[in-house]
Design brief:
193 residues; alpha+beta; 4 helices; 9 strands; 33% strand
Amino acid sequence: MSFILWHREAAAFCGFYVSGADGKLFNDATQVVLMREGTRTVLSMQNDYKGPVKDFAMVVPVPVVLQKENVKTLSRALFDKVETLSAPRLVEYWEQDPCPNENARTAEAREGLAGSSYSGKGGGAGGAAPAVTIEAKFEVGEYEIVILSAADSGSLDTWLRGNQYNIPENAEPALRPYVAAGSKFFVAKVNAS
């Protein structure tokens, strides 16, 4: 599956799998190819998923609302070619460490995360805007895709669980900084038929 993103600062969370009921999910490997030209970034992901296809989905934070023309499925052969071209080669280099004070940068990054806010679980009251909004909905290949936005991470967690997605127990804290930053959420579900 390949989709186009516009660049924001990089982060470590690349999404997670969800399933309905008590489905057990296994992924031996994920291959990610990231290409950038100007302000356009293309992210392609291939997952070696093993488990029930029924109710399988993948949730990935994205910086913008993706449209159908931004999402494509790719052949395994393309990933095999990229793997061959990018395979490690035995080369030995020696150079001076360009980042001698790594601890200072780590502390700055932690301070930046500490400033994010969280409004707690649940949605708004009365006529307030919905806590989770379906921004786009379309099909590409064997995938049914929805792009979600959320007012808070607790609401997103609740929405996924309420729609029969068995997400990891501690998913909400992982979602929190992305919701606070205004990320959207790409949810690709396999159409079992």
